[in-house]
Design goal:
4-stranded antiparallel β-sheet, 2 domains, 6 helices, globular, alpha+beta
């Protein structure tokens, strides 16, 4: 049996007695869970690239003095700039590998060539390459199954996972505010649930169990289900 080659794959999330990776999917070098997670991560990268770009000029309270003047410079988030540059470079590198090894065009689109003023006749079509995150991440998603069957599939999963975490932390550096609520409300669970509130990104706020953080998780739209826990804490 071939096991999943993604470094982050651990079967113990479903079976606490097993710590080895899940079996690889038929024809792939990673399991279906890691394959789907890779697709989700790739889909999130264009948004994270845009978030990093916004964070680069978001007020941080730190201003660099403009050389030769007494005026302060723009507030810059250098970590966000570095994360965005790394994200674009890694996506472009993998997209280039796909194009080279499959013998196909890299990310881009056909367009019309600008012709001189007064030119009469049909315009020439030209293929314009694109290296932005939307183009490269979308390109990789279209070739997702081929990539997951590639000998470097495990490396791709690791690199893209790192990109997501680095870009997310750079774009939103403020840690969440945490408050312990009490015992998990799921029957039979012995864990404790904590509210994680993100002031800069409220949609990410959630209540999470420390024993089953993936299965026992409640987003903002489900907090009404936790009334028993809040009542117990208040008592």
């Amino acid at each position: 049996m071939t096991l999943c080659e993604s470094a982050g794959c651990r079967r113990d999330r479903e079976d606490k007695s097993r710590t080895d990776p899940r079996p690889a999917a038929d024809g792939l070098r990673v399991c279906w869970v890691c394959r789907d997670r890779l697709g989700e991560y790739l889909a999130s990268l264009p948004g994270l690239a845009a978030d990093c770009e916004q964070a680069m000029i978001r007020a941080t309270g730190l201003h660099d003095k403009v050389s030769g003047t007494s005026e302060p410079g723009l507030p810059l988030n250098l970590a966000a700039g570095d994360a965005r540059a790394q994200l674009l470079a890694v996506l472009a590198e993998w997209a280039g590998m796909v194009a080279d090894e499959r013998g196909i065009r890299p990310p881009g689109a056909w367009g019309l060539c600008e012709m001189p003023h007064g030119f009469i006749g049909p315009a020439n079509r030209v293929y314009r390459y694109r290296s932005d995150a939307v183009a490269t991440a979308g390109y990789l998603r279209r070739h997702l199954d081929w990539l997951c069957a590639h000998p470097a599939a495990g490396d791709l999963c690791a690199e893209v996972g790192d990109l997501v975490h680095i870009a997310d932390k750079a774009a939103y550096p403020d840690p969440p505010r945490r408050r312990l609520l009490g015992p998990c409300v799921v029957v039979g669970c012995g864990g404790l649930i904590t509210a994680n509130v993100y002031l800069d990104r409220p949609e990410r706020s959630a209540v999470v169990c420390d024993v089953e953080p993936e299965a026992h998780r409640w987003g903002r739209d489900r907090w009404h289900e936790l009334k028993p826990a809040r009542t117990a804490v208040a008592a």
